[in-house]
Amino acid sequence: MEMLLRTKRITICLFFFVLSLAAAIEIPLSVAQLPTITEQSHTQVAYPFDEDFTIKCEARGNPQPTFNWTKDGKPFNLLSDPRIITFNNSGTFVIQNHGIITNFQGKYRCYASNALGTAMSEEIELIVPSVPKFPKEKIEPLDVEHGDSVILHCNPPKGIPPLHIYWMNIDLQHIPQDERVSMSLKGDLYFANVEENDSRSDYCCFAAFPRLRTIVQKMPMTLKVSRSNFIKERKPKLLIPPESAGSSSSVTVIKGGVLLLECIAEGLPTPHLSWVKVTGNLPKDKPVTENFGKILKIEQVSAADEGTYQCTASNPVGRAKHEFHVHVEEPPRWIKEPEGGVYSVGTNLVLLCEAIGNPEPTIQWKLNGMPIDSRTFRGRISAREISLTNLQLQDSAVYQCEASNKHGTILASANVNVLNIAPLILTSDGENYATVVGYSAFLHCEIFASPAADIRWTKDDSIEPLSALRYELNKNGTLEIKETKKEDSGSYACWAANSVGKRAITANLDIRDATKIVVTPKNPRVLKSHSILLKCQSEYDSHLKNSFKLSWRKDGDQLPVNSTQDSRIIMDMDTLFISTVTLEDQGVYTCVASTSLDSVAAESRLIVLDVPDPPEDLQLSEHQNRSVRLSWKAGASHNSPVNESIIEYEESQWEPGRWQELTRAPGNDTTALLTLAPYMNYQFRVVSVNAVGRSQPSKPSLRYATPPAAPDKNPENIRVEASEPNEMVMKWEPLKPTERNGPGLEYKVSWRQLGVETDWNEELVKKHSLTLRNTPTFVPYEIKVQAVNNLGAGPEPNVTTGYSGEDTPDAAPSGVSVDIVNSTLVKVFWFGIPRDRVRGHLSGYKVSWWKTKSMLDGKRHHPEKHFLTFVGDRNYGMIPGLEPFSEFRLTVLAYNSKGDGPESSPVVFETPEGVPEQPRFLKIMNFDKDSVTLSWGLPKKANGHLTGYILQYQIINETREVGPLSDISVANRSTLSWRLSGLSASTKYKFYVKACTAKGCGKPVTEEGLTMAQGSKGIGKISEAVNPTQKFHPIEALDPGTEYTVRLVTKNWVDNNSIFEDVIETRGRAYAGIYDGISTQGWFIGLMCAVALLTLMLLTVCFVRRNKGGKYSVKEKEDLNPDPEAQSIKDEIFGEYSDSDEKPLKGSLRSINGDIKATESADSLVDYGEGEHGMFNEDGSFIGAYSGSKEKGLVESTGSCSTATFPLYA
Q1: 192: pLDDT confidence band, cut at 50, 70 and 90?
Q2: In this structure, how many other beta carbons lie within 10 angstroms of the beta carbon of residue 1155?
Q3: I need a labelling partner for 424 at 20 to 30 A (CA). Which of 489, 800, 1095, 1149 fits?
Q4: Contact 671, 646 (CB under 8 A)
């Protein structure tokens, strides 16, 4: 350290202040010092059930103290009895509980001594109690007369307090006590006067010593009470205090203790005890009486309780009094204790000792445990003070001050250590300290020195002491750096010096970044039963990573990890997840981040939203016949204000148990005036509503009954219904129970024919309908219905017009005519029937028509009727969906709710020719390099006389680009094939064929094909349908010497995969003559037939296995995945398909065997009239497609191959 001083050339400079080490720190044990008692026993009881008893005395000092004991003021040798166990360097000893140990009872004192002085302990009293026992004695029975006073003495044995005394019988039942019979503080049982039922032979006194775990019983006592011939009434006489004590006595009580004053009196009748304080008033709330007023008890006695107290025993005969003069005394207590310390040579010493008590305590000074002889003592000594000047090393000693009075002794010691040593720095050199920015740093430099040392701190290489306001030097030498900054990091030195020597140590300080946290979300609002996730985001110094910890608190209390049994609250590092939030979860959640150097907290208040609590305390006021005021107390809103309150009612007469809404009160209103109906027995409840939802209903209010009254309203919705022509049923909506207003509700029904001046017909009914019979058909009536009850009638009712029962119309429309609009649509006109012939409310007209013959072939048709309904009173209608070039008949009838009237006479009309439908098929028979042969079928329906066909074709390519369209007119209607020439080689064409009549041409049928390349065969395809029941199928129109691919495809398979495919080559003409001989041989023909049959069998088996079972719609399957290669085949087999998106109004499906089945006509074409579906405009123009009842065709597998086609490629 001297080298450090020289190299840094640091000189001692001004220091902050001088520390007084006398009271600063404890003297290091390495420094020579006086003995000091560090631990000692106090009053101790040697219980008989203990194995041993330890009396402690420990002390410290340098040199190590030795120990001596005194007992009752005389030296006590610990080796005098083998039952005493001692310990090295300790004054503590143990007495083993063997044999008789009563000789160990006494007051002990421990002395600890070394070369510098002697320390003395306080007195330690050891009490060796004897086992308490009642003496064996024979107790004579007591014979007394009725009314005498008796005392049963207990005289319990002595023992360690507390002592509890009980008077019981032999069955351990307590003797009842009251004002007449009571036990004194000493345990005696007093009878103010005896009664005959006091006689018994088992009065037992039990004495319990809890600390000794002992209960002892006195021998039973017998009391015999005999009846006296006269009543011994007498005035009270005090038994405690006895008369011998006089009219007054003195009582001394220790301050802070319990004052017990006792008065017990005898007399007949039984005396009553009362207490007063003669000198002053009894303190309020302090004194209490016990034992039926016979004991006055004051706890925590103070000087104010001193004075004279008087007890008075009184009965009707007289009274007795006694005064207690209470004196409050106290044991000694210190006002000023002598204080020792460390003193340097040449200083002065003053020790003060002052105590108070009652009586006044005496003060005695001792030096090293021995009384001070003022004659030889070099200092000054008085009762309260000792002083020494110019202390020297040999003045080191232990001074004891002892204060005593009759209530006790107290001892205070003062160690006066006179030392002359260089500074001792008790803090280790080179300590490392750390703190965070903004916090205070504490650098320790604990020093012991005598004389006191000067202390200063320097930083790094500076020799200047730290003197800024942020630096503070504490009394123990610690340097506090307030509000630290990063630049406070570095090396610090602590310097200590006194007149004897000097010392120094260094310390290193590191400043870390402060920890920062934030909790998100901040103050969230969460619905009850929802979940919330709180996240604690933190930043901390990387050096503090290992000590960093996060914890959560709720309302200041630590949240244990996964605290709830069902793990509803889960803490995972920096997150706190609360599922199914409850109202109890509301509060302030604090995230606490701590490191070894700092701790910070951030909080977030969780607000739980819930429906309000139910309202409470419903009260009714302002009772009126038709109103009452309801008031209530709102329940807790749970952080969402109440928007409104719903008042509901339940009435017990009509709908008991059913709650209905009556009204609503806005906002936080807690009262509402309720409008009520007469003749109701109400009870109410309230539901509060906030933004979260509705509360549970409140408890119902008291019931409130309103008086009856006449009806306020009449029935509504009066109407006439009739099922028979000559009756009228009048119906109305009955009054609700809340509208009846009273008992005996009936309805007065009044009616008369409209326009006929007659009196009203009236009838009272209880139901809500009335039937009149034998009324004329469909005649208007005036009707009114009035509500009546036992208290009167309702208001004058309104008149309603109704009609009697209807009948079907009895006339047919006339003047029916038909205008032809086009080949499929006509417009029908008629004259409506007279209103009086409708015989009811006219619903509309029905137009029926049926086809009688075709104009094309003149064949008669079986009549298949169709009809359209036109609602309302009108005289025309449009009929769509007719077949062109046909003859029809048509009728019109009127109808009402009862049914249809008679039809008009049939009208015959003919539809003109229309355009034909598309040809049934189009086939490409063969291709050449520049020509192609087309073959087509007749149209499905000609719709007139065919005039010929139009052939069209154009070039197409893979990109769907098309060339110009070329037309060829075929005037001969019998021509069904055509050879086109002048085509380009290796070119793809699309061909169109459409049939024509005089009206025009219909939709075309199309096909595509590719012409042959130069010098090669043409490529085309032929598609034909195969019946699944066929065993074989011939393929015709093939070119000789040409190679073909034959493919069998299921028509209705989704993927259209081939189930059979083979390549064949037709026999060329050049080879025909060569093989003519073979082909005509029987064996060759048989072989070919066998091969063909085997092939078909294999084909059938394969197809059955792949197509086994199931029903499926041909059309639906094809619509899902159309096969481009099979599209033309589909056009041939199913006629309603075409390249155009247009569909015919009415079509048919070709069956799997190629037959045409006509679809069944619809029963009604209501969709196209102005009926319920309104498919026509007002002018009758057609706005929708005719749709009859179509049936989907289903193909059912029968085990053989289903419908298939064979596309052929040349």
Answers
A1: very high
A2: 7
A3: 489
A4: no
What whole-number distance in Å separates Cα of residue 688 and Cα of residue 714? Answer: 35
Edge-first strand order for the sheet with 876-879 is 814-822, 825-831, 876-879
pLDDT digits (tens, 9 = 90+) for 287-324: 789 999 999 999 999 988 899 999 999 999 999 999 99
Per-residue model confidence (pLDDT) at position 1036: 59
Strand-by-strand arrangement of the 441-443 sheet: 441-443, 479-481, 471-473
DSSP conformation class of 374: T
From the list 789, 750, 784, the residue with the least C-alpha distance to 766 is: 789
pLDDT over threshold 50, residue 520: yes
Q: So what's the pLDDT on residue 1022?
A: 59
Output the CA–CA distances (angstroms, integers) from residue 66 to 73, 168, 316, 889, 919, in the order listed.
Answer: 19, 56, 74, 148, 140
**How far apart are alpha carbons 872 and 1172 in whole angstroms?**
11
> Is the separation of the CB atoms in 561 and 552 below 8 Å?
no
Instruction: Using DSSP, state whether 566 is helix, strand or coil.
Output: coil
160: its two tokens = 């360690």
pLDDT the model gives residue 836: 85
Strand order from edge to edge, sheet including 769-773: 716-721, 727-733, 769-773
Neighbours of 742 (CB within 10 A): 17
Among residues 476, 428, 480, which one has the least CA distance to residue 455? 476
Query: Would the pTM of this model clear 0.70, i.e. be above it?
Result: no
* pLDDT at 466 > cutoff 90: no
Q: Residue 829 carries which side chain, given as an amino acid letter? A: F
Listed as own residue / partner, the contacts of 682-685 with beta carbons closer than 8 Å and 24 or more positions apart are 682/628, 682/649, 682/650, 682/651, 682/706, 683/649, 683/650, 683/651, 683/652, 684/618, 684/620, 684/630, 684/647, 684/648, 684/649, 685/618, 685/647, 685/648, 685/649, 685/650, 685/659
Q: Which two tokens stand for residue 703?
A: 């019931």
Which residues, listed in sequence order, are joined to residue 728 by a DSSP beta bridge?
Answer: 772
Centre a 10 Å sphere on the Cβ of residue 982 and count the other Cβ atoms it contains. 7
d(Cα 1070, Cα 799) in Å, to the nearest integer?
A: 107
Q: What is the pLDDT of residue 402?
A: 93
- Give the Cα separation of 1132 and 959 in Å (integer): 26
pLDDT given at position 928: 79
Confidence of residue 1054 (pLDDT cuts 50, 70, 90): very low
Say which amino acid occupies 116.
L
Rounded-to-integer distance, Cα 104 and Cα 110, Å: 15
What value does the mean pLDDT of the chain take?
Answer: 83
Q: Which of 1012, 1072, 1050, 1071 has the alpha carbon at shortest distance from 1210?
A: 1012
CA nearest neighbour of 931 among 1012, 1039, 1038, 992: 1012
Per-residue CA distances from 1120 to 736, 1053, 1131 (Å): 60, 10, 16
Q: What is the pLDDT of residues 984-996, one digit of tens each?
A: 888 888 999 999 9
Q: How many helices and strands (H and E) does the chain possess? A: 6, 95
**H helix or E strand, kind and range, residue 1117:** helix 1114-1120
Q: How far apart are CA 1163 and CA 864, in angstroms?
A: 9
Residues with Cβ within 8 Å of residue 612, at least 6 apart in sequence: 634, 635, 636, 637, 638, 640, 642, 688, 689, 690, 695
> pLDDT tens across 1103-1162, in order?
766 654 433 333 333 343 333 333 333 333 233 333 333 333 333 333 333 333 333 333
The single-letter DSSP state of residue 734 is P
Helix, strand, coil fractions of the chain, as percent rounded to 5: 10, 45, 45
pLDDT digits (tens, 9 = 90+) for 593-644: 999 999 999 999 999 999 999 999 999 999 999 999 999 999 999 999 999 9
Which DSSP category does 1040 fall into? Answer: T
pLDDT of residue 1170: 41
How far is the C-alpha of 171 from the C-alpha of 201, rounded, in Å? Answer: 12
Contacts of residue 242, defined as CB under 8 A and 6 or more positions apart, other chains included, come to none
